[in-house]
Amino acid sequence: MVARRKVAVVGVALSDCGRVDGVTPYALHAQAARRALADAGLDRSLIDGFASAGLGTLAPVEVAAYLGLRPTWVDSTSVGGSTWEVMAAHAADAIAAGHVRAVLLVYGSTARADVRAGRRTGTLSFGTRGPLQFEVPYGHTLIAKYAMAARRHMIEYGTTIEQLAEVAVQARANAALNPEAMFRTPVTVDEIQDGPVIADPFTKLHCCVRSDGGAAVLLAAAEYVRDCRTSPVWVLGSGESVSHAAMSEWPDFTVSPAAVSGRLAFERAGVRPDEMDFAEIYDAFTYMTLVTLEDLGFCGKGEGGAFVERGRLRVEGGGLPVNTDGGGLSAQHPGMRGLFLLVEAVRQLRGEGGERQVRRGDGGLPRLGVASGTGGWFCSSGTVVLGAG
Predict the structure, then answer these.
(1) Which tens digits make up the pLDDT trace of 318-373?
(2) pLDDT tens string 80-103
(3) With 50 as the cut, is the pLDDT of residue 1 above it?
(4) Fewer beta carbons within 10 angstroms: which end of the chain, N or C?
(5) 185: Cα separation from own chain's centroid
C-alpha cells in the first residue's frame, strides 16, 4: 500500500472585497489566484489540480481557461456555502493519494455590484423544480427558512433573541480589528433589535452583509513545502455531510449537518473540539453561528445561547474566538463564503492576524483551528481541522 502524503495549505489570499464596481467575477477569481500564488511563492506550473464552482456554464472549465490553467484533476462540487470546505477535503484526499501535486481553490463574485447595476435581484431564486416545487407556493425565502429554524430553537431551548443578537455584536467587535472588513463600527444588542424586521425573528443586522469579493487557497503535498515562502498549515482532518433539500424533510430544525461533518473531522484529525484555539463558522445569519457551535461540540445541544454570552466569541473575549475577521455578518459575504473561512483560519495559524490575532493563554500563537461551512438552508456541511506548522 502506498503511503499517504501529508497535505498543507501553502498559499491564501483575498481579492479586493467589499464595494468593488466595474470588474467581472472572472477578474476577481484571477486577482485572488495571483495573490495566493505570490503568497505561496510557488510557480503556477506546479498546479495540476483546480476547483471552482458558481461561475460559468462549464465550471470549473471556464474559470481554469480564463486563468490559463490546464489541470489534470478538477472539482466542481457545488453544495452552497460549504462548497469550499468539501472541495478542500476532496483536494487533500487527491494530493494525499498521489493523484495530484497542488490544487488551487478559487472563488469570486460581484453579488453586490450586480444588484446595484440591476443585473439581478436581491433575492436569489433556487427555482421550482424537484423537491422545492412543494414549498415554493408557500412563499419561503432563503432568509425565512433560517428564521424558522431559529424560532424552533428558541421554542425548544429558551434561546433568546438577545443571545442571537450577541453573535452579531461580537462579530462586529472582531471586524473592528480587521482593516479589510466592510463594516467596523461597533453595534449594540439594542441597535440590532431596533432595526427593520427582515424575517421574524431576524432584524437586518442578524443577516449577513452583501458584498463583492473573491478568495483563493492553494494546497500542496508536503514535499513542496520547503519551496514555499510561508509556513505550512496542515490539513489534519475533514468531514462532509448533507441533510435535506426540502425543509419538510429536515427531521430537527435545531440540528445542522455540522453535527456529522464536525464529528468526522475531529475524529479523523485525532483531536477534540475543546483543543481548538479558534473557529471560523459560516454565518449568513446569527442562528447559524449558534447552532453550529453546538453541533461541532463546543457546547451541549440547547446551550448555544448561554455559550455566546459574555463576549466569549470575541478575539479579546477570553473564550473561543469565532469568526475572527468579522465573518459574513460584518467582514464580507459575496455569496458562497466558505473559502473565506479557510483563508482566515490559515492567516490566524500563521500569525498574520494583525490586531485581531488570536493568542493562546500563554501568549503563543494558535496551534489548532477549525473551519466549518454550511450550504443551502442547513442542507450541507463541510468541516476542516487545520494545524500550524
Answers:
(1) 899 999 999 999 999 998 999 999 999 999 999 999 999 999 989 999 999 999 99
(2) 999 999 999 999 999 999 999 999
(3) no
(4) N
(5) 22
343 with 214: CB under 8 angstroms?
A: no
Lookup: cell for 353: 492576524
Q: Are 289 and 322 in contact (CB under 8 A)?
A: yes
pTM: 0.96
Q: What is the mean pLDDT of the chain?
A: 94
DSSP E strands in 83-223: the ranges are 102-109, 197-199, 202-203, 213-221
Strand partners, 388: 233
Q: Are 288 and 322 in contact (CB under 8 A)?
A: no
How many residues in total does the chain contain?
389
The residue with cell 462586529 is: 172
CB-based contacts of 368, cutoff 8 Å, min separation 6: 236, 271, 275, 276, 277, 385, 386, 387, 388
Q: What are phi and psi of 235, to 5 degrees?
A: -85, 110
From CA 35, how far away is CA 33, in angstroms rounded? 5
**Is 107:29 a contact under the CB 8 Å cutoff?**
yes
